[in-house]
Amino acid sequence: MRLTLLLPLCGMLTMVSAAKQPNIIFIMADDLGWNDVGFHNPKLKTPNMNWLAKEGIELTNHYAQPVCSPSRSALMTGKYPSNNGLSQFVIFPLSKSCLPLEHKILPQYLKELGYATKYVGKWHLGECHESCLPTNRGIDEFRGILFGQADYFQWVYTEEHGVVERYVNDSVSLENIGTHLTLLEKSDVKEMIVAHKGKDSPLFMMVSTTAPHTPLQTTEEMYNTHDFLNGSEPESIKRRKYLGLVSAVDDIIGETIQSLKDADLYNNSVIIFTSDNGGTSLPYRFPGLLEAAGNNYPLRSGKGSMLEGGVKVPTLYFDTRLPQKYAGTKRDFLMHISDWLPTMMHLAGNDSFDVSIDGVSQYGNLRGSYSELKKYCARRELLLSLTNYSALSTETLCGASDAAFRFEDWKLLYGTESGVVSHSVPTEWVKPAESPELPDITGDSCFRLDEKGNQVLRCLFNLKEDPYEQTNLYDSHPQIVEQMVEMINKMKAKRVQNIFKRSVDINVASTMYDGHLVHRSNYCDPVIDFPLQPVHPYCISEFSHDATEGIDCCNSCSNSFICSM
To answer: Which pTM value belongs to this model?
Structure first.
């Protein structure tokens, strides 16, 4: 059996014209799982998410990256992380890493189209140099945290990295320290939107919530939102805390909608809601991920994995200008998080895009009538992951390590012994603590030993027939595997060197201010530490569909990006 490469019959879509550019509000939750929303899990109390699902369109085939910084980089650049420099895990706190400055990013594009640009919440795209900060990358106004997570009350990453990371524009802010971060985000959203009332320019606002990422810290009110979880078991307590953070995200969504109405902006607004990756459904050995309480049931695995639970995320699109007949509908067209950049530009009135981006505009699929026959019209394939790292190593590996690729209904997972999936992320299906009555799901393993005795990942799924990834078809469809491996190898030609670095000494990247250890910029050099450049040719190896040939072409790359041979 071979893949058909004939183009589907994609007719013209009915378009809805708009007299002026819409306000665009992009809300991204942090580590929110497929089963952590009320419109998938009716036991959960998320009235505002449910309202968006009822009044908007659910995108049931929307994919992000397995972890945070890569997803955010894809959103901001319109490029796969393997092509933008952030394919390797996440940006560590206080590290000499930053989304390469050569990239023009989403708010910069929208500013050129006349938008005011505002940002609330988590950044996580680099902070070691002032040029990496949001206000120097197209954001007019920023209020949020710079790192990947924070103590919700003290605003520090961890005790080890006890640096206050809350920023207002380009400066550290200690105002209201001790207030739960999600409450600050809620008030920041209100203030920024209301302040835009009466302005001539359209508004773009990114609301990147810190929740429900760990640590599991809530206010009493948040903790009591799901008080039916009243068991004394650790899993029940953790789940209740986690859902308290989910309720905080829901409150922020509600505040966003109400503030748009208060500012007379609502009737010409688009609200997009999604997550940066799947929920952490089982603990694994990385900082901040031992308190696993997210849930992706019935999808397999979770954050950090290339399986559906790690990359398929709940996503809603709400446009006040669309006819009511589209309210509460679902659309299954294939979409990647990188598609939002050209899609939002298209919404803003520009349908001419940089040819170097990987994202495609989904404007037609969102703005007009839709049928399943058009499922693969805009996009037939997507690269879910192409990494070249070992998350457990102190050095950056050159060789390709993990790949996940989807072509229409087929999905291939192809990993080596050094991949994060192979050694660290659990691959089971997990039931939520609130629903022990749900049926157990089991399936085939994706792991095997190669000819060298190394554990590798080899899975092929037909997601139309097997949406929960239970049946591994890798050995029974060698021609499909071969074709998909060939597609992946072609995509590797655009790869750039990743910019991953370990954290520096805390004394290098911080200073004392008003009795607190606070973040300090300019402890890195953009030219030296994170240039955008191709992977060294000696580091490029091709996948083989039945082995790991060429993976060991070289063991590591130095920080100067010269491959050790």
So the answer is: 0.92
